[in-house]
Amino acid sequence: MVSGRDASPDLDPAPDDWSALRQQAHRMLDDILDYQQHIRSRPVWQAAPDAVRARFQEGLPHAPGDLAALHARFMDEILPYAVGNAHPGFMGWVHGGGTPVGLLAEMLAAGLNANVGGRNQIPVEVERQLARWMAELFGFPDTASGLCLTGTSAANLHAVLVARTAARGPEVRAQGLAAQVLPPLTAYASAGAHGCIARALDIAGIGSDALRRIAMDSAGRMQVDALARAIAADRAAGCQPFMIIGTAGSVDIGAIDPLAQLADLAAREQLWLHIDGAFGALARLAPRLAPQLVGIERADSLAFDFHKWLQVPYDAGFLLVRDAARQRAAFEQPATYLARAEAGLAADSPWPCDLGMELSRGFRALKVWFTLQTYGAARLGEVIDTTCRLAQHLAGRVRATPELELLAPVALNIVCFRHRAVDEATAQRLNQAIVIAVQNSGIAAPSTTLIDGRLAIRAAIVNHRTRSQDVDALVDAVLRLGTTLQ
Ligand SMILES: *Cc1c(COP(=O)(O)O)cnc(C)c1O
Question: Which ligand 1 atom minimizes the distance to the CA of 317?
Answer without folding.
Answer: 7
